[in-house]
Each structure stands twice: as structure tokens, then as C-alpha cells.
Records
---
Amino acid sequence: MDGATAARKPRRRTAHRLVPYAFLAPAIVMFTLFLLAPIGYTGYLSLRKVKVEGLGLGRGSRREIFAGLENYRQTLADTELWRGALRVLGYGAILTPVMLGLALLFALLLDSRRTGFRRFSRISIFLPFAVPVVIASLLWGFLYLPSVSPGQHLLRSAGLPEMDLLGPDLIVFALANIGVWGGVGFNMIVIYTALRAIPRELYESARIDGCSEFQIAVRIKIPLVVPAMIMTTVFSVIATLQVFSEPVTLRPMTNSLSSTWSPLMKIYQDAFARNDIFTAAATSIVVAAVTLVLSFGFLRAVQRRAFAGESQ
Amino acid sequence: MSTVLVKQPATRDSIEVTAPPRRRTAFTPTAILVLGAVYCLLPVTWVLIASTKSNADLFNTFTFAPGGALFDNVAGLSTYRGGIFWRWMANTALYAGLGALLSAALSGLTGYTLAKFRFPGRTVIFNVLLAGVLVPGIALAIPQYLVMAKFGLTDSYLSVLLPSIISPYGMYLARIYAAAAVPDSLIEAARTDGAGELRIFWRVAVPVMRPGLLTIFLFQFVAIWNNFLLPYIMLGDDRKFPVTVGLYSMLNLGNTLPALYTFVITGALLSILPLIALFLSLQRYWRVDLVAGAVKA
Amino acid sequence: MRSRWCRQLAAVAALVVGASLAGCGSDEPSPQATAGGKVELTFWTWVPKIEKVVDKWNAANPNIHVTVSTQAQGDDLITKVLTAHKGGSGVPDLIQAEYQALPTLVSNDVLADIKGDVEASKGKFAEGLWQQVTLGTDAVYAVPQDAGPMMLYYRTDLFQQLGLTVPKTWDEFAATARTVRQKDPKRYLTTFSATDPGWFAGLAQQAGASWWSIEGDTWKVSVNDSATKKVAEYWGGLVAAGSVDDQPMYTPEWNKALNDGALIAWPSAVWAPGVLQGNAASTKGKWAMAPLPQWSSGENKTGNWGGSSTAVTEKSKNKKAAAQFALWLNTDAAATTQLIQDGGLYPAAREAQAGPALAQPPAFFAEQNDFYPQAKSIADTAAGFTWGPNVNVAYTAYKDLFGKAITQKSSFTAALDQMQQTTVDDMRKNGFKVG
């Protein structure tokens, strides 16, 4: 770019003061337009509501007015929202340990030379990452519904009672399963990569001391991948709190899911079905704030303990 | 790049030779791993087999018994509404391919700047960008739509492309990667030679960051490919739909029309295949260790 | 090699960017009439193969060009229209709107009053349907397109096998349901679906219910009026006793049940043959149609399940042309014939109901020669209904509350009362005056 002017330009070892800002400009502009502006607009909308006059059928009978904090008051007092939050926490409590536990297990197995079919398994387990959640939920729906499901067919043939996976008792496991299936591969690769980064000498000295593979895994490998697992946990928790597509896709197939099963479903209902963007805006802000607090809080707590002494 | 570098595998092998002889592969670990692989492949296999069944067979035969109607199903799907399914696939390729490309470029530039320059506001900007990851997408959907409407851009290809370009996670990864992979000395040398900043980025940083940028590209590609809510809200004309929204619309045709399960299943299969092919062909370029290494920062 | 990679990448990027920009430029919403007089209209609809009908219009009317966009159906489409209307751009000129959505659209100022252009054709439609597009006011907000009168469909072969007669009253229906369970525990007479509020609304209409009504400038909500309570209690009893199934309709499981005869009857609407054909092709020729069971012997009533209209939007810049098209679409003989044959609709226009396109029974019911004449006489008995401004809230409440009642095995009438409360609360919250 500056080839022609090189002779004239003074030689510097540091960049011009404004260069970083110029380079960051595109990102900042896009961020402002597509994240900050909508967030700001959402905040604005959360402070307003609609007032209808009379029957509401005549022209101009709906007006938008300032509502103060009324939407927030109603949101925070809405028991359905908190029940949804509790359901989602239950869902997360099943999903996160199972998914990360399996990811860790598979990663450890991949890292062991004594395991066969590693290449095949690594690709297979990662494959669900390529399937969109909406499609995945539909596919699993077919596998859950009693009369079309091969699993239930097998149970029936064996004379065992059918499991109503879409019934009210097991539906949360059915949903968690879809999440585990979709996420275990990605997390497995993350942990596996962290495992590959461990210096081999550690294992050698342990083997010389007589440790078995299993003991090496538990005593050496797992503690050293804890940082990777922390990150996957945080992102998994965030995704859990925002679960939406799986329950929405399964809902028409079962009586066990309400339209406000998860907080994000409630936001969707308010915004799209009830045409009440104002309540939806207030609920969004509340959900986003809670997510922010939980994730940042968790990260801070964990970083202080796990990375004591680490500098950037 | 991970700062804890592994020793060459050869070292481990040479130890193996002197150790007492072990069985090459153990049964239990292999069985567990293969079981996991089978579990993950189960729905994919189901889709494969189900797409070979005609509509009548789909509900009348055993689930894993293949039928012979794959060709018919693909043909039927291709002629449904004048071949709109392939248009959906093309749209998805556009959104995901172009979107991921631009996103990787933007993330690369941003990450490089945040990693390699010292300037006031650096930490603040980084933290604010990162906070973007935590905002629920669905909460933003309608406000994003309304912002787009102000520019008159709704129901256009740009309305799906532009929001897809900004990826806080990608910027985060790029920053980590740039910090670890691009040596300051190289940059300073280039500056001393009189190169401009943009040229330095393009000629020095990008080649070194290429594996990381490719990873970001792949992540964002998958994310956009699988994204449902954004295009669903932004687009009105169904000729611009990506495949996920298109298949969903085929499922939800209402009470008065039969659901097109066969087409949806065949369409699902056809939409998964390109992604799988992409993964398999590019897997040696994956640098997921930068994700793991990101934790240390 | 590095620069070649760069160059290739740049070339691909330029190509793709160019293509996308070219694509995005051509989607101007609601273009104006050009100086040459040619009018461009956009029409959001979900009727299958409606492009063929529109092509006919475009050929005959070179100055008014209609473009069809199929992107969503029913409630989803309404949501998109409302969002587009709020955003101020991208609003189509014409939309297909189900009758129950019209009050919502009108109260959001989305629809134009097309009385001047279509009033003259009022007599072409049944009174009950016309009332749905005027909402009891002086204005006319849409042109009725199709109707969904309800009737009973049943498997003749299985009825014969189990020795059953076609029930004419709901009491007989209940008895038949019990008999089916006794004789063959693998089968149910039918299922009660908590995911299809329109179906339940149609059954309530048959019993004489009217969930919303207007008194001056106050709304009255009576979702749990005595007629609907009767229907809820009836079905609640059947579900509790296990006489009917409780699975949702329109799922893969339900498809399978129709295919293997686990469900042998289906209270549904006149458009059912198309659904059965698509979902249970293997049962072709084994079904017959009869009027819905009645609450009192000798009565002759039914309700409507769904049905939509064609409306013109307020933001359209060519309302007159749009209204013209809407009227043509739903009254012209050639247009309605094609809507029937390709779109699978049952037309609202009286002439079309008695027209040549409906002379033959549907292919799936080839044995039943009087299918359509019978359908017409049933359609004439369909009760009217007033829809309120928050039908989708009531519908969502139905799905949640009745679904919960099924899984918790609790009372359907209690669920109905809660549904009433939810509907009233939502209207009050939005500022409507509810008496």
C-alpha cells in the first residue's frame, strides 16, 4: 500500500496512533448496528405498552404509550416465567454433566492407543454437529414416537412395556438427549485437543512408577484438561438457558410441553403469538441480564481459582 | 497455538518398544467408543434409510428396512414447486459461504488489532465485544428486524448476511490466535521496512493466522448453515429461504394439507451431506487447539 | 502459491458478493404503479399451486400483475404481516387471512376497508361467511375464499368388521367408542387432540357456542359458555374413560395410526380427503363421509374448522386493483374451479359450491358419489361465530391447558375455565374493555 511513499515515510517501529481504531471500525460499526442498536431498541420497547380504546376495531384505536417499569414488574411477578426457568435448570442439570462427562470419556478413549476404530469414532461422534437443531429434533421425534420408533418396536417385541419418552415424566430426558447428541462431538474434540497438548513425559514417569492407564487418566489427564472443561461448561450453560428449538419442534408431537416451557419460548410467544413486543422486550432484558450475571460470575470465580498466577 | 507443545510422537513410540508387550487394542475402551459412535450415527442412519422409502412405506414398514424409492424421492423433492429446494440449498451456500468468509475476515482483522496493538480502550472494547456472545439471539430477532426495516433492507439477502458477519466468538478466537501465532518481531521488521499497516496485516499476519482463520470460517459456516431464527424472521419471500427454514415450512403447512414428511426427510439428508463432505475434506486444517488454548487467556 | 490462493479467494468473493447484491436489489416491496399504468401487486398466500390461478389473471389483465409469495401459513403468516406492518416496509398488497385472524388484523390497522369494491357481491356468499369478513361492522375487510364445514369421516371396512353403525348423535358416538375399545383394544374410534384448537372451536360452534361478542363498545368473552362446557365435559369423559385416544393429530404417530387403522374415524372438515390422501394413501377407498353426530336427535347443525379469506392491506398503494383481484379470485368460475382442483379448497362462493368442478367426488372417496352435494347441504347448516382480537392467545391457552389436563388427568371443564380467564386477562392487559 505504501510502497511508493516508502522513501518519504519516516521509519517507525510502532504504528500510527489511529490505526487500531481504523481497523476496529468495521467491527464496531457492525456490532453497533446489529447488536447494540437492537439491544437499545429492545430496552426502549420494554418501557412502553399499547393502549386500546373501546373495541379496538376502529381506525387508530391503538396507541403506544410510555409504561415506565410496569412491564418489568409484570415480568418479574410472572410465575410461569420462573417455572420455565426452573424447568430449564433441571434440563441443564441433566444435559451438562452427561454431555461433558461423555465428551471427556470419549476424549480420553481417543487419546489412548489401546482403543480401536479411533478415526471412525471421532468422525462419527462429531457428525451431529453438522445437523441443524430443528432437523435433529424432528429426527429424534420420529425415533421417540411409540408407533414409528424402532426402539419402542424392539421393546414391544421383547414383551417389555413401552417407555413413553414424550410423556410428562420423561420429556425432559428426551429433550436433554437431543442436546447431548448434538453437542458431545464438539466438546469431545475440544477436550481431546487439550489432551494432545499434554507433554508425554508425564505419562512415562507415571508408567515407570507402575501406574495403570486408568490411573494415569484419572490422576494426570483429567486435572490437566480442567481449564478446557471449564470453558465448555460455560458455553454449555449459556446454550442451556437459551434452549428453544428442541422444545418448539417437539411440541406439536406431544401433550407434555406447554408453549412457555422455556423462558425463550415465552419471549417468542409474547412477541409473535400475542403480538406483545413490549412484554417480550422486558422479558428479554431480564433473561439476558440473568445469563450475563451467571456466566460472568461463574467465569470470574473459576478463573481466579484455576488460573491463579497466570498472566495474559 | 497452544503454548504447551507436545513432544514428537516418535518419543512415545520408542518408549513403547522397550515397555513390556501389550495387546494392541483393548476390548472395553473400543467397545465404549464404538457404542458412542453408533449412538451418534443412529439418527443419521435413520434419515438415510427413511429417505429411501416412499410416502406409503414410511409409515407401514419397519424403521430400518430400506426401501427403493430414494431416486423417486429426490426427483419429487426437486420438482416440488418448481425446484425450490435446490434454490434453498443455493441460498444456504450463499449465506453460509459468503457470510462465513466475511465473518472470518472481520474477526481476523479485529482479533489481530486487539492482540497486536496497544491503545486506550482496548480492554473495554474486547469485553464489550465478548458480552455479545451472551445476548440471547431470539431476544434480538424482532429488534434486529425493526432496525433493518429502518434501512428498508428487510426481506433481502443482505438482511440475513449482514447480521451473520458479526461473530463475537470468532473475534475472541482470532484474538487468541493472533496473540500466540503472529510474532511481534515480524511485524516490527515489516514496519521498519516501510510497509503500511494494512499491507502488514495482509502479507504478514494473515498467512500465519491462516489455520486459525479457517477454523473460524468453519465454525461460522456451520453456525450460519444451521441458523433458523434469523432468516425465518427477516425473510418474507420464500425463494430466499435457506434450507432449514424451507424444510420447516414444508412441515408446517397447516391442518388442511398433508405433511410432506418424505420430502422433508429427503431434504434433511441432502442438506446434511455437504456439511459432512466439508468436514471430512477440511479436517486436517481444524485447529481446535486454539479453542482449548483460548482458555488460558 | 500464497498469492494464487489470495487471488482465487478474491475472485470467488467478488462473484458471490456481486450475485448477492444483484439478488437483493430486485425485491422492492409493494412497488408503485408506474406512469405507464401497469400495477404490481404482491400476494402472500399458502394455497397449493395458486400460481396457476394467478397466471390466468396475469394473462387476462396485463395492466395488473400479481406475484405470489408462499412463505408461511396461518398464524405464522399473520405474525409476519403484523411485523412487516410495524416495520413500515415489505407489506404485501394482498394476504390470505383465516377468518379468526381478521379481528387481530383489523385492530392493528393492517386491513383496508374494501366495501366500495366488493359490496355488490355480498349475495354470492352464505350469510354466516359474509358476517365473518364484516365483523359485524359497516365495513368489509376481506372476500371469503373457502369454508371448512365439519363432518365425520369413518372407515367403512373396519366399521363393518367390528359390526358398528354410523353414530347419528353424540351419545351414540360415545357408545360406539366404548364398543370399539371392547371389541379391539388396539383400536380407538378417534382421538381428542389438544394441539388443534380450531377443531375444538368447530365442535363448539356446532353446539351453539360463541366465544366473543360485542355490546356497544365493550367486548364480552364467553369461552366457557354452556355450549362449550358441554363439549368439553363430553370429550373429557371419553378421554378419562379411555374410550378415545388422547394423542395429538398431525404427527408421524397419528399418520401411522390412520394407516394401520388404529384410529377408525375422524371428525374433520370438508378438506379432509386431501389430508387423508397425503398421509394415509394406503387406505384409499376405505373411507366414507357422514354428517357430524348431533347433540339432539333430528338436528342438523355443524361448525367450521378454519377457512380463509383474501384481504387487502391498508398500506397497499393499489387498493382498488387489489380488491378487484380478490373478488375475481373467489367468484370467477374459472378461478374457483382451479382453486378447487389444484388448491384442494372448498369454495365459499355459493355458485362454485354447486358448480361443475365439484360434480365428481374426490379421488380418495371415489365410491361416494354424493360427497359434494352432501357437503353443500352440511355447509349450509354451519353456525356463525364472532372472533375476538386475541384468538391466538385463546388458541395457545387451549393447547397448553388441555394438554396439561390430559397429562395430569384433570378436568377438561376446569381447563376450559382457565382458558376463559387467560383470554379475558390478556384482553384487559392490552387495554380492551371487557365486560
Note: Chain C touches chain A through 46 residues (CB under 8 Å).
---
Amino acid sequence: MTTLGASLRPNEPGPGPGRLPSGAPGQERPPAPRSESPAGVPAVELHGARMALGERVLWDGLDLRIEAGEFVAVLGPNGSGKTTLLKVLLGQRELTGGTVRINGRAPGGAGTRVGYIPQQQAMDVDVPLRARDLVGLGLDGHRLGLRIGRRARRERIDRVNTALAAVGATGYANSPAGRLSGGEQQRLRVAQALVGDPSVLLCDEPLLSLDLANQRVVSELIDQRRTEAATAVLFVTHEINPVLPLVDRVLYLVNGQFRVGTPDEVMTTEVLSELYRTQVDVLRVRDRLVVVGAEDPGCHREHTA
Amino acid sequence: MTDILGRLFDFAGTGALLRLPFVQTALLAAAVLGLIAGLLAPLIVTRGMAFAVHGTSELGFAGGAAALVAGVNVGFGAVVGALFAAVVFGLLGLRQRERDSVIGVVLAFGLGLGVLLLALYQGRSVNKFGLLTGSIVSVDSNNLWLLTGCAVVVVGTLLVCYRQLLFASADPEVAAARGVPVRVLSMVFAVLIGLSTALAVPAVGAILVLAVMVTPGAAAARVSSNPVVVTVLAVVFAEFSLVGGVLLSLGPGIPISGYVATLIFLCYLGCRLFARFRRPAVLLASR
């Protein structure tokens, strides 16, 4: 399978029909990489990446270069290795071949500044955390030792307050995190990931089990971050429509095959039929993509519904 | 009836007893135990490890019983048994479902082994009974040093990695994503539980370790979600019930476990009631 990834830069603004609804935040193009990241060093770089689980090869020869401010959606049926890819980028798993770099460094190491947004999960109601504590853990929960010094504390409180305000969570900053609604908790997840000032944002199905209004809020918050701070976004999802206006490129993984390109290049009848090795039809209905025939039962339910 | 009450609450000799060195040692032991139990309890509750604590305490009981038979220091035997259990449970990580059944298996084995060993023991029966129901006055200065040493280890570990432990306990997935060594911390925490449980077994008894290691955290979590407030409250509750239990038990000369369990249960009830009447106001204020 050929890939377009290695040579592809952030795509040019020519939107396909229906790709950019008017007034959507995705209309702004990703800004140029910020001066702090060395010129030419991509936010994420996979080169000849291979991941095999025993006999089974999830993907091989994966070249992907994500620039600062780029929004890449990772799509594919269950078990195609989407989450495994995230784990590689988080430094939780080793590639079985090839190389991976985040801001030019090994993943999981110091200085990679990676934010992570998990899918919404019910939190224990009695978890001893307020909303602000959950966000604060995103700032320094990985550090050893105690917080020392009044100034450092002051600064920490300010940063947490700023992050809470950015997601509109100031009103419930002191409420028990476990007693908030799913949408409120997911906003906190965004704040928790952003408070550490990430240069790369990794999202694992962050919209799953949210209602439409909250899906919009959360995806707009993520998009706002990447346009304002040029944070690269890798967004694992099985449903592209809620983020379709924001997506620069798609990485589509199916049974060891993959394709990288703009949504217009990848989300077509020809490409998906080739990936799935069966007849798959991609229809455009207004601003939405409808995929018919991708047989994974859990995967495209929303597409065809 | 008044006779029984009179036996349960007898302060006639308490004043005189308080001047005895072994009573002062017992009070000090209770205070140290209360500190570490209170510090660990909120994390135990957050990690859903109440059952693991119970399992650990039964292995501590078996270890203590083995030490009795072998004629070595009971506290030492309890530490070995509890650490063994802690390591086993720690290796199981955070997955609740598989953990529960393994804890059940290990717990039953530990209890059975302990009873068998006690049956083999030919010495004073108060020693046997003490392991199950606790006798804090049996804490001698040797044990006090062991207790203090363990308390230093627990407090020192918490000072270094409290934030990571809180993160890994309350929010394991994101913690792992942020590079927190969740599995290693799971082991570290299990060892802390093992140490504290082992120390609690001779003092309050294997059956009632849960009362001091879990209830303070469960009570505190009802009234606050601020991690610092929860921890401070848990320490206060644990100290109140342990030191209070020792004081109440002195006059009547009854094992402290009944008093401790009752006092901490009252704390828990109070917290639930407090939360019930306060919660609507908080929710209104926070929206």
C-alpha cells in the first residue's frame, strides 16, 4: 500500500464541497510553527513504523509527519491499531520496527510536552478530587516531591484557573469531580490536557458517549487550542463527522493496510473499498460523510444510522 | 444492663493507669498507627482496595501466628506475612475484577493457615486471642520502634510520591499517559499497605484492621472532595478512634478493638449525615 504521508505537508486550503460549513472554526488554516520549536522539526514523526502483535501486523511502513497546528484524525475499525498508535506516541509501547519522534525527541521522555485526552468514563462519585484538582494533576501530577514556596503555589493556582476558564469550567471549579456530568467532566479533561501547555495533543475517542452539544463544545475547544497555540492534534475516532470541518488529514487503518491524506483523498469509495477489500460506498450528505458497507459492526454504526 | 454498661465504661482506674509506662507506650503506638492509617486510608478508598487490605491483614495474622509457634517476634512475623500478600496483590495491578477473586482465595488461605498455626501453639492463650482481636497494651518498646520505623517509611514515601500516587489512584489512565509509573506505584503502595497492616494486626487485631485502614478514608470522602482536607480529616478520625479506644479500654481492661471500631463507625455515620444535610446547598452554590 502506498502512502502519501511521508511527503505530505499540511494540505492547501482548497476545501471540497461541503467540507467547511460557514462560520466553523476550522476555516482558519493552521498557523506557522511557533518559533520555540526548531524549524523543520515536526510535532510528530513516524518513519517506517511497524507494530506487530505476535503474528499479526497492525501496520507496517507507516510514515507520518504531523506539523505544528495540524489536525490529523485516525480512523479505522476496532482492533486496527488506533489506540496502539497512541500508546506508541505516549511512550507506553515500543514500535516493533521503524522510528518515532515527538518534537524531535523519543516519546515519553522529558520535554515532549504531550497532552492526552481519554474517552469519557464515569468517574467514581467519591473520588477525592475537585474539578480544579483533576486539572491540577495534569499540570504537576507526574512530579515527585511536594509543592514548595508561596510563589510556585500562586502560579499553579493561576494556571489551573486559566485552564478552567478556557473550557468554561470556572462555575464548577470547586465541585467534586465525580459528581459532574459527562460533558462537564470531558471539558475538565481538555483543561487537564491543556494546562501543561502541550505541543502535541493526543485524543483517544474524546467525544464518545457525549451528546451532540457537548461533542461540539469539546471539539471546538480542541480546535481553538491548535489554532491559538499551534498545537498538533492527533484525534483517534471512529466517527469523523463531528470533527470533519477541523480535519486536515486522515490516517485510515484497516487490517494492516492504511492510507494517509486529506479527507477528500481518503474518504472516497475507491480508497475505502481498496482498504476494506470489499465494496464500500462513501456518500456525502450535506456536510456529513456516510460510509456504507464497512463491515465492522461496531465501527460505522453512526455513519449509516 | 447497668452492670454491663458499668463494665464497658469504667474510668475508676484510668488516671492511675495513664501513669504506667506500658500504657503510655500503648497510647504512643495508637497515635503512630492513627497517623499512618489516616494518611493511607483516602488512597486505599480511592483505589478500591478495602478488600485487599482485609486480605493483607489475614496474611499478617497467619504470619504472626507462625511467629508465635516459631517463638520469634510476632510483629516481625506479621510484617513478613502482610508484605507477602501485599506483593501478590500489588502485582495484580488495578483491575478490580480479577483482583477480587484472587484476594478472596489468598485471604481464606491466610485465615485457615493462621487458625491451624494457633491450634499448634502451646503458649498463653491471650497471645492467640490477641492476634485476632488485638491488644495494644502488648505493644512493647521493641514493637514501638518497629512501628515508628515503619511510620517513617510510610510518611517518607508519601512525601516523595504523594502526588503521583494520588494521580495514579484517582485517574490511572491519564496518569500513565503523563508518564507516571502506575505499575511501580501500585507495588509501592501495596508495600505501604503491607507494612501498616502488619503493624495494625497485633494492636487492633486482624479482624478489625479494616476499621482503622479504610473507615477513616471512607468517612472523610463523604464530606469533602478536596484531597488535602480529606487526608487531614482521615488522620483526625483515625487518631480520635485509636487514641480514644485505648483510653476507653484502660479501665475495663477489655481489648480496644470494640471501642476503636465503634468510635470510627460513629465518625462515618456522622460524616454521612453531615453530607446528606449539606449537599443540596453545595450543589446550588457550585452551579
Note: The radius of gyration of chain B is 19 Å.
